[in-house]
Amino acid sequence: MPPDIGFAMPLRMPDRMLREAIMYAERGWRVHPLRPGRKDPATLRGCLDATTDRDRLTRYWTARPSANIGIATGPDSGLWVLDVDGPKGRASLAELEAAFGSLPTTYAVRTGRDDGGSQMYWRFPVLPDGVRLANSQNRIGPHLDVRAAGGYVVAPPSIHPSGRPYAVEVAVDNVAIDVPLRVAVVQDGAPEKVITTKAIRTTVTM
To answer: For the chain, which terminal residue's Cβ has fewer other Cβ atoms within 10 angstroms, N or C?
Structure first.
């Protein structure tokens, strides 16, 4: 019988992927597998296959033990994510904070980008009928992307195409809700408009 070495042995990466996927699901975030070391989905329907069902997740990662983890964003997960791409993204974010106010602390992830990137998780806002929070690239500022309904993000401890792992940068129990930032929203029959997330909780004028 091996001696008691006084600490738990680290999980193998495939075991850890499944464990982390289930942990996200327990937070109410819908999860789906991505191809190992990549960002593209490992299933035919992508984020439409995302689930919080533990048995389905176990089947996913039993079939693909090294699959990366995707978290579907949008109202079903109660989540939207601001993707900040490297130094230029951080500069754009600083300009937005100067204009609209400092951001509260929220759950954040460090991506595996060579120049450093981060993803900030926010609680999905209450929206008026006919209005949706849109996915966008560079819409609210250069090198700032929004992942919302119909989108997804890569979650830790997934491996970035650079070979570096995604990692939790700021760990908090709950994601923040009041975000003094402008984001792109779309109202049925009207063009996209950029407004503040606080404003869309009460009214939207197009």
So the answer is: N
